[in-house]
Protein backbone atom coordinates (compact mmCIF):
# COMPACT_ATOMS: atom_id res chain seq x y z
CA UNK A 1 0.00 0.00 0.00
CA UNK A 2 2.93 2.34 0.52
CA UNK A 3 3.46 2.28 -3.25
CA UNK A 4 0.09 1.15 -4.59
CA UNK A 5 -1.92 3.75 -2.68
CA UNK A 6 -0.25 6.84 -4.16
CA UNK A 7 -0.15 5.14 -7.57
CA UNK A 8 -3.90 4.64 -7.54
CA UNK A 9 -3.64 0.85 -7.59
CA UNK A 10 -4.26 0.13 -3.92
CA UNK A 11 -7.33 -1.25 -2.21
CA UNK A 12 -9.94 1.07 -0.72
CA UNK A 13 -9.85 -0.99 2.49
CA UNK A 14 -6.83 -3.03 3.51
CA UNK A 15 -5.76 -5.15 6.47
CA UNK A 16 -2.54 -4.77 8.43
CA UNK A 17 -1.15 -5.83 11.79
CA UNK A 18 -1.38 -3.07 14.39
CA UNK A 19 2.40 -2.76 14.84
CA UNK A 20 2.53 -1.23 11.35
CA UNK A 21 0.19 1.58 12.40
CA UNK A 22 2.75 4.31 13.09
CA UNK A 23 4.66 3.65 9.88
CA UNK A 24 1.47 3.68 7.80
CA UNK A 25 0.08 6.78 9.47
CA UNK A 26 3.32 8.72 9.09
CA UNK A 27 3.38 7.72 5.42
CA UNK A 28 -0.01 9.37 4.99
CA UNK A 29 -1.86 6.33 3.63
CA UNK A 30 -4.47 6.09 6.41
CA UNK A 31 -7.71 8.05 6.30
CA UNK A 32 -9.04 9.42 9.57
CA UNK A 33 -12.44 7.88 10.25
CA UNK A 34 -15.66 9.86 10.53
CA UNK A 35 -16.60 10.94 14.05
CA UNK A 36 -19.80 8.85 14.05
CA UNK A 37 -17.95 5.76 12.87
CA UNK A 38 -15.23 6.36 15.45
CA UNK A 39 -17.87 6.61 18.17
CA UNK A 40 -19.38 3.26 17.17
CA UNK A 41 -15.97 1.63 17.21
CA UNK A 42 -15.16 3.00 20.67
CA UNK A 43 -18.49 1.71 21.99
CA UNK A 44 -18.41 -1.77 20.46
CA UNK A 45 -14.74 -2.73 20.18
CA UNK A 46 -12.38 -3.75 22.95
CA UNK A 47 -10.63 -0.74 24.45
CA UNK A 48 -7.18 -2.34 24.16
CA UNK A 49 -7.76 -2.90 20.44
CA UNK A 50 -9.08 0.62 19.84
CA UNK A 51 -5.86 2.07 21.22
CA UNK A 52 -3.93 0.40 18.40
CA UNK A 53 -5.72 2.53 15.78
CA UNK A 54 -5.84 5.76 17.75
CA UNK A 55 -3.41 8.66 17.72
CA UNK A 56 -3.94 12.02 19.38
CA UNK A 57 -7.59 11.16 19.97
CA UNK A 58 -8.26 10.39 16.31
CA UNK A 59 -9.27 6.94 15.05
CA UNK A 60 -7.70 5.63 11.84
CA UNK A 61 -8.86 2.04 11.62
CA UNK A 62 -11.25 -0.71 12.64
CA UNK A 63 -9.90 -3.52 14.86
CA UNK A 64 -11.09 -6.82 13.39
CA UNK A 65 -9.39 -9.73 15.14
CA UNK A 66 -7.23 -10.21 18.22
CA UNK A 67 -4.72 -12.66 19.62
CA UNK A 68 -2.57 -12.96 22.71
CA UNK A 69 -1.06 -15.67 24.89
CA UNK A 70 -2.81 -17.93 27.38
CA UNK A 71 -1.58 -21.06 29.15
CA UNK A 72 -2.32 -24.47 27.66
CA UNK A 73 -2.25 -27.44 30.01
CA UNK A 74 -2.37 -31.17 29.33
CA UNK A 75 -5.22 -32.71 31.30
CA UNK A 76 -3.58 -36.15 31.24
CA UNK A 77 -0.65 -34.71 33.20
CA UNK A 78 -2.33 -31.96 35.20
CA UNK A 79 -4.90 -33.53 37.51
CA UNK A 80 -7.59 -31.20 38.74
CA UNK A 81 -7.29 -27.43 38.51
CA UNK A 82 -4.29 -25.99 36.62
CA UNK A 83 -1.58 -24.11 38.49
CA UNK A 84 -2.15 -20.44 39.15
CA UNK A 85 1.47 -19.56 40.02
CA UNK A 86 4.83 -20.00 38.32
CA UNK A 87 6.18 -21.09 41.69
CA UNK A 88 3.91 -24.15 41.67
CA UNK A 89 4.76 -24.91 38.06
CA UNK A 90 8.47 -24.61 38.87
CA UNK A 91 8.27 -26.99 41.83
CA UNK A 92 6.41 -29.55 39.76
CA UNK A 93 8.89 -29.15 36.90
CA UNK A 94 11.84 -30.05 39.12
CA UNK A 95 10.13 -33.33 39.99
CA UNK A 96 8.97 -34.18 36.47
CA UNK A 97 11.65 -33.02 34.03
CA UNK A 98 13.62 -35.72 32.24
CA UNK A 99 15.69 -34.24 29.40
CA UNK A 100 16.77 -37.69 28.16
CA UNK A 101 13.12 -38.49 27.43
CA UNK A 102 12.19 -34.98 26.23
CA UNK A 103 9.86 -34.59 29.18
CA UNK A 104 9.51 -31.00 30.36
CA UNK A 105 6.74 -29.86 32.67
CA UNK A 106 6.80 -26.30 31.32
CA UNK A 107 8.05 -25.08 27.95
CA UNK A 108 8.25 -21.67 26.34
CA UNK A 109 10.70 -19.73 24.18
CA UNK A 110 12.42 -17.41 26.70
CA UNK A 111 14.95 -16.39 24.06
CA UNK A 112 12.51 -14.39 21.92
CA UNK A 113 11.11 -10.98 22.79
CA UNK A 114 7.45 -11.99 22.34
CA UNK A 115 7.08 -15.05 24.61
CA UNK A 116 9.64 -13.57 27.01
CA UNK A 117 7.61 -10.39 27.53
CA UNK A 118 5.40 -11.72 30.38
CA UNK A 119 8.60 -12.24 32.39
CA UNK A 120 10.33 -9.04 31.26
CA UNK A 121 7.31 -6.89 32.15
CA UNK A 122 6.60 -8.52 35.50
CA UNK A 123 8.06 -5.66 37.54
CA UNK A 124 6.71 -2.83 35.42
CA UNK A 125 8.99 -2.70 32.38
CA UNK A 126 7.15 -0.88 29.58
CA UNK A 127 8.72 -1.29 26.15
CA UNK A 128 8.92 2.13 24.44
CA UNK A 129 6.86 3.75 27.17
CA UNK A 130 3.32 3.37 28.43
CA UNK A 131 1.82 3.79 24.95
CA UNK A 132 4.56 1.91 23.09
CA UNK A 133 5.31 4.90 20.87
CA UNK A 134 8.45 6.42 22.44
CA UNK A 135 10.95 5.09 19.92
CA UNK A 136 13.85 6.88 21.60
CA UNK A 137 13.45 5.12 24.95
CA UNK A 138 13.04 1.33 24.95
CA UNK A 139 13.39 1.20 28.74
CA UNK A 140 16.38 -1.14 28.82
CA UNK A 141 18.29 1.06 31.27
CA UNK A 142 15.69 0.65 34.01
CA UNK A 143 15.57 -1.40 37.19
CA UNK A 144 12.26 -2.87 36.00
CA UNK A 145 13.89 -4.35 32.90
CA UNK A 146 16.81 -5.78 34.87
CA UNK A 147 14.38 -7.46 37.26
CA UNK A 148 12.59 -8.91 34.26
CA UNK A 149 15.86 -10.38 33.01
CA UNK A 150 16.32 -11.95 36.44
CA UNK A 151 13.11 -13.88 35.82
CA UNK A 152 14.48 -15.07 32.46
CA UNK A 153 17.60 -16.33 34.23
CA UNK A 154 15.47 -18.17 36.81
CA UNK A 155 13.65 -20.09 34.09
CA UNK A 156 16.78 -22.11 33.35
CA UNK A 157 16.10 -24.17 36.49
CA UNK A 158 12.73 -25.23 35.16
CA UNK A 159 13.64 -25.51 31.48
CA UNK A 160 17.04 -27.30 31.39
CA UNK A 161 17.59 -26.77 27.67
CA UNK A 162 20.25 -24.77 25.83
CA UNK A 163 19.06 -21.50 24.35
CA UNK A 164 20.02 -22.62 20.84
CA UNK A 165 17.28 -25.25 21.10
CA UNK A 166 14.69 -22.73 22.31
CA UNK A 167 14.10 -20.43 19.37
CA UNK A 168 11.01 -19.40 17.45
CA UNK A 169 12.21 -21.70 14.67
CA UNK A 170 11.83 -24.66 17.05
CA UNK A 171 8.31 -23.81 18.23
CA UNK A 172 6.83 -26.61 16.16
CA UNK A 173 8.92 -29.07 18.18
CA UNK A 174 7.68 -27.56 21.44
CA UNK A 175 4.11 -27.76 20.19
CA UNK A 176 4.58 -31.39 19.22
CA UNK A 177 5.99 -32.16 22.65
CA UNK A 178 2.79 -30.79 24.15
CA UNK A 179 0.64 -32.79 21.73
CA UNK A 180 2.61 -35.95 22.55
CA UNK A 181 1.80 -35.58 26.23
CA UNK A 182 5.36 -34.86 27.32
CA UNK A 183 4.77 -31.25 28.36
CA UNK A 184 2.20 -30.20 30.94
CA UNK A 185 2.15 -26.42 30.44
CA UNK A 186 2.76 -24.41 27.30
CA UNK A 187 1.91 -20.69 26.86
CA UNK A 188 0.93 -19.92 23.28
CA UNK A 189 -1.60 -18.05 21.15
CA UNK A 190 -5.01 -19.25 19.90
CA UNK A 191 -3.68 -20.37 16.53
CA UNK A 192 -2.78 -23.79 17.97
CA UNK A 193 -6.21 -24.58 19.39
CA UNK A 194 -7.87 -25.94 16.26
CA UNK A 195 -5.12 -28.45 15.53
CA UNK A 196 -5.18 -29.63 19.16
CA UNK A 197 -8.90 -30.28 18.85
CA UNK A 198 -8.50 -31.95 15.47
CA UNK A 199 -5.86 -34.28 16.94
CA UNK A 200 -7.98 -35.03 20.01
CA UNK A 201 -5.41 -33.77 22.49
CA UNK A 202 -6.80 -33.74 26.03
CA UNK A 203 -6.08 -30.14 26.98
CA UNK A 204 -7.42 -27.04 28.64
CA UNK A 205 -6.67 -23.32 28.50
CA UNK A 206 -6.23 -20.99 31.44
CA UNK A 207 -4.87 -17.52 32.05
CA UNK A 208 -1.16 -16.91 32.47
CA UNK A 209 -0.03 -17.57 36.05
CA UNK A 210 1.28 -15.14 38.61
CA UNK A 211 4.95 -14.91 39.51
CA UNK A 212 6.22 -13.31 42.70
CA UNK A 213 2.58 -12.54 43.39
CA UNK A 214 2.27 -10.43 40.24
CA UNK A 215 0.00 -11.22 37.31
CA UNK A 216 1.89 -11.97 34.12
CA UNK A 217 0.79 -10.07 31.02
CA UNK A 218 1.46 -11.03 27.44
CA UNK A 219 1.92 -9.03 24.30
CA UNK A 220 -1.09 -9.00 22.02
CA UNK A 221 -1.63 -8.40 18.33
CA UNK A 222 -4.56 -6.88 16.47
CA UNK A 223 -5.44 -7.20 12.81
CA UNK A 224 -6.94 -3.89 11.73
CA UNK A 225 -8.88 -2.71 8.69
CA UNK A 226 -7.83 0.67 7.33
CA UNK A 227 -9.39 2.99 4.77
CA UNK A 228 -6.86 4.23 2.25
CA UNK A 229 -6.43 7.99 2.18
CA UNK A 230 -6.23 7.59 -1.60
CA UNK A 231 -9.63 5.90 -1.94
CA UNK A 232 -11.99 7.47 -4.47
CA UNK A 233 -14.93 6.15 -2.44
CA UNK A 234 -14.03 7.03 1.16
CA UNK A 235 -17.58 6.86 2.56
CA UNK A 236 -18.33 3.46 1.05
CA UNK A 237 -14.91 2.22 2.12
CA UNK A 238 -15.52 3.46 5.65
CA UNK A 239 -18.87 1.66 5.85
CA UNK A 240 -17.31 -1.57 4.66
CA UNK A 241 -14.53 -1.26 7.24
CA UNK A 242 -17.17 -0.70 9.91
CA UNK A 243 -19.02 -3.82 8.73
CA UNK A 244 -15.92 -5.84 9.61
CA UNK A 245 -16.62 -5.01 13.27
CA UNK A 246 -20.23 -6.21 13.08
CA UNK A 247 -21.71 -9.39 14.57
CA UNK A 248 -22.19 -10.79 11.07
CA UNK A 249 -18.53 -10.31 10.17
CA UNK A 250 -17.44 -11.68 13.56
CA UNK A 251 -19.51 -14.80 12.90
CA UNK A 252 -17.85 -15.30 9.52
CA UNK A 253 -14.43 -14.73 11.10
CA UNK A 254 -15.07 -17.48 13.64
CA UNK A 255 -16.76 -19.94 11.27
CA UNK A 256 -14.27 -19.65 8.42
CA UNK A 257 -10.98 -18.82 10.16
CA UNK A 258 -11.54 -19.80 13.81
CA UNK A 259 -10.37 -16.37 14.90
CA UNK A 260 -11.48 -14.07 17.70
CA UNK A 261 -13.33 -10.84 16.96
CA UNK A 262 -12.15 -7.59 18.54
CA UNK A 263 -15.71 -6.84 19.64
CA UNK A 264 -16.47 -6.37 23.33
CA UNK A 265 -19.65 -8.41 23.28
CA UNK A 266 -19.33 -11.92 21.82
CA UNK A 267 -22.66 -13.18 23.19
CA UNK A 268 -24.23 -13.04 19.72
CA UNK A 269 -21.47 -14.99 18.00
CA UNK A 270 -22.64 -18.60 17.72
CA UNK A 271 -19.90 -21.05 18.62
CA UNK A 272 -17.53 -18.44 19.94
CA UNK A 273 -19.72 -17.52 22.92
CA UNK A 274 -19.61 -21.18 24.02
CA UNK A 275 -16.01 -21.86 22.98
CA UNK A 276 -14.31 -22.44 26.34
CA UNK A 277 -10.81 -22.18 24.91
CA UNK A 278 -11.16 -19.04 22.80
CA UNK A 279 -13.16 -17.30 25.52
CA UNK A 280 -10.09 -17.51 27.76
CA UNK A 281 -8.05 -15.74 25.08
CA UNK A 282 -10.75 -13.11 24.62
CA UNK A 283 -10.66 -12.35 28.35
CA UNK A 284 -6.86 -12.45 28.50
CA UNK A 285 -6.68 -9.88 25.72
CA UNK A 286 -8.40 -7.29 27.92
CA UNK A 287 -5.36 -7.12 30.22
CA UNK A 288 -2.73 -7.68 27.54
CA UNK A 289 -0.18 -5.22 26.17
CA UNK A 290 -0.37 -4.48 22.42
CA UNK A 291 3.00 -4.78 20.73
CA UNK A 292 4.46 -1.28 20.35
CA UNK A 293 3.86 0.32 16.97
CA UNK A 294 6.95 2.53 16.95
CA UNK A 295 9.10 2.24 13.84
CA UNK A 296 11.94 0.96 16.00
CA UNK A 297 10.08 -2.12 17.23
CA UNK A 298 12.35 -4.21 14.97
CA UNK A 299 15.30 -3.06 17.08
CA UNK A 300 13.70 -4.73 20.08
CA UNK A 301 13.44 -8.10 18.34
CA UNK A 302 17.03 -7.85 17.10
CA UNK A 303 18.44 -6.73 20.44
CA UNK A 304 16.64 -9.41 22.43
CA UNK A 305 18.07 -12.31 20.43
CA UNK A 306 21.58 -11.96 21.84
CA UNK A 307 20.58 -10.65 25.26
CA UNK A 308 17.94 -13.24 26.14
CA UNK A 309 20.04 -16.15 24.89
CA UNK A 310 23.00 -15.05 27.00
CA UNK A 311 21.01 -14.31 30.15
CA UNK A 312 19.08 -17.58 29.91
CA UNK A 313 22.30 -19.58 29.44
CA UNK A 314 24.02 -17.68 32.24
CA UNK A 315 26.85 -16.23 30.14
CA UNK A 316 25.59 -12.74 31.03
CA UNK A 317 24.14 -11.58 34.32
CA UNK A 318 20.82 -9.71 34.18
CA UNK A 319 22.70 -6.47 34.88
CA UNK A 320 25.14 -7.16 32.04
CA UNK A 321 22.24 -8.13 29.80
CA UNK A 322 20.47 -4.84 30.45
CA UNK A 323 23.62 -2.88 29.60
CA UNK A 324 24.12 -4.89 26.42
CA UNK A 325 20.50 -4.33 25.40
CA UNK A 326 20.86 -0.57 25.78
CA UNK A 327 24.22 -0.53 23.99
CA UNK A 328 22.97 -2.66 21.10
CA UNK A 329 19.86 -0.51 20.75
CA UNK A 330 21.92 2.69 20.64
CA UNK A 331 24.17 1.14 17.98
CA UNK A 332 21.15 0.35 15.81
CA UNK A 333 19.84 3.90 16.20
CA UNK A 334 23.26 5.30 15.28
CA UNK A 335 23.26 3.22 12.10
CA UNK A 336 20.08 4.84 10.77
Automatic annotation (TrEMBL):
The keyword Signal appears for this protein: yes
Pfam families: SBP_bac_8 (PF13416)
Gene: cycB_1
Recorded GO MF terms: maltose binding
Any one Gene Ontology cellular component term annotated for this protein: ATP-binding cassette (ABC) transporter complex, substrate-binding subunit-containing
Family as reported in the entry's similarity comment: Belongs to the bacterial solute-binding protein 1 family.
BP GO annotations: maltodextrin transmembrane transport; maltose transport
Stated name of the protein: Cyclodextrin-binding protein
Keywords from the named record: Signal, Transport
